[in-house]
Amino acid sequence: MWQFIFWACIGLAIYTYFGYPLTLYLLSRLPRRKRHSIVEVDYPSVCLLISAFNEEKVIRTKIENSLGLTYPHEKLTILVASDGSDDETVRITKEFADRGVRVYHSDERSGKSAVINRVVPDIEEDVVVFTDANALFAEDALERLVRRFADPSIGCVVGKLRYVDRHTTAVGKGESIYWRYEGMLSVLESKMKSVLVANGSIFGIRRELFENVSPHVANDFQIPFDIARHGHGIVYEPEAVALERCTIFWHEEFQRKVRIVLRGLTGLSKMTDKVGGMRLWQLVSHKLLRWAMGPVLFVALFANVMLMEGSVFYAVLALGQVAFYLAALNGWRMRGTRRPHAVFNIPFYFTMVNFAAVIAMAKFASGQRQTVWEKAESARFAPAVNGSFRQIRQPIPIPREKVLETDALAEEMAKN
């Protein structure tokens, strides 16, 4: 029995991290109808919707970055949607009113999804592009994102998020690896026009396809499912790039992962009637099994220990697992170092993410829900630039005052 349990758990882990991508690759190689080529078309009108809550540290840079995009200005509307901000966010935004920047402000904080439900029905532009205040676009990102709508079968286009981590921390390194892995999955899913979820920092939809989002569900989780349910494709555009600052503190990233999984589980529970066929398989493989890896790996370790007696093979496997978790523990101990080693920070990040999923599942089972999104404070130090930036691969200039603020945060991290 213990052998069956052990190998079943190991099989699930291998399928989740390697089998699912391999299956996607094989499916993408099957003969399909000729893909719609991207052609030069008239630019559709676009509303760039910036969600904001107390973003005074980054909103000016975000607006300047948005105004510096190469998308035709006469076809672009910039709308800042403030969800109960009580700092200088609204005042700063109004400074750009003479340049066509609009602002919606709700006095009471009700959550990102609730604000989106209020503002999107009044948008008249052809395409709505969702983004966050601390995510900066490459100057051609909007053009590259929107051009995919030349294919009339496409209802949603997801851009690429790149993390900028000035202070090389275990969290930053782990998050970068995570997003490279997610990007690979998105490329494979995109070949079937079935990207599972969007990226809240940069994704666009045809405005007429929008449906109200549940206040308990992340908009970048629910909207793609709503669009796919009506037969429209969701694709990934890796050349539409947004930059965002990594969180600095591991506990901020841990809490962020808990919130993400909790909202994901909530979304899954509320959208059972909207998911079926291939996307149900994708949801189970891409998300549900990934969230369940913490308990699965714990059971695998326990079963492995039970099989050790009299077996060198199982003893070696058990020692390998223990060594991995000891490396994770050492990664946690070294979390404040400026240049963490991959031998320790990758096990640390992997273990942290899976433990966060366990906490999220416990909260979900106890009835807790997450309506209001809380951004990690250190992530509010955006990869600041003045206006647009031409070379996405070049280092991004960061104002001196931001450097000093981030240095102070890093010093606090090292002490803790």
Question: What can you see in these coordinates?
Answer:
It is built from 13 helices and eight strands. Helix 1 crosses helix 10, helix 6 crosses helix 12 and helix 11 packs across helix 12. Strand 2 (76-83), helix 3 (89-94) and strand 3 (101-106) form a beta-alpha-beta unit. The protein has an eight-stranded mixed β-sheet. It is α/β, with parallel strands linked by helices. It has helices at 2-28, 59-67, 89-94, 112-119, 141-146, 170-190, 219-229, 250-270, 277-291, 293-306, 312-333, 342-365, 400-415; strands at 46-52, 76-83, 101-106, 127-132, 135-137, 154-164, 203-206, 233-245.
Largest sheet: 8 strands, mixed
- DSSP helix count? 13
Structural class: alpha/beta
Radius of gyration: 22 Å
Helix proportion of residues, in percent? 40-55%
Q: How far apart are the termini?
A: 44 Å
Q: How many runs of DSSP E, i.e. beta strands?
A: 8
> Which stretches are low in confidence, meaning pLDDT under 50 for 5 or more residues running?
384-416
Mean pLDDT: 83
Strand content: 5-15%
Sketch the topology as an H/E string, one letter per element: HEHEHEHEEHEHEHEHHHHHH
